[in-house]
Amino acid sequence: MSDSEAKxxxxxxxRVRLVAEFSVERLNDHFERNGGLNPCEACGExxxxxxxxxxxxxxxxxxxxxxxxxxALLFVPVFCGKxxxxxxxxxxxxxxxxxxxxxxxxx
Length: 107
Prior knowledge:
It is a single chain. The model has no long low-confidence stretch (mean pLDDT 85). The relative contact order is 0.21. The chain is α+β, with helices and mostly antiparallel strands. Helices cover 26% and strands 20% of the residues. The N and C termini lie far apart (39 Å). The chain is built from four helices and four strands. It has one domain.
């Protein structure tokens, strides 16, 4: 890549970088920092599975935000191995995106 091409490449925001690098390991670190996964509120078991794509990355679900309509939240489904109860973990928070860099309007 030439210097002129490198200068033209848009800078990636911290939010985009952290979400792109998000991994199962990072999600597990988030759980450990925050007291782990509590037992399932539906059945009491603690057999949780993190949904993953074919490359072993956490599967992310996008939920649009009503206002502003261009924003969306990303979640990773984590489900109970016994009863199927599902929790949705906010990717921005679990990935360590600073609140000021989130596009979801949270403060």
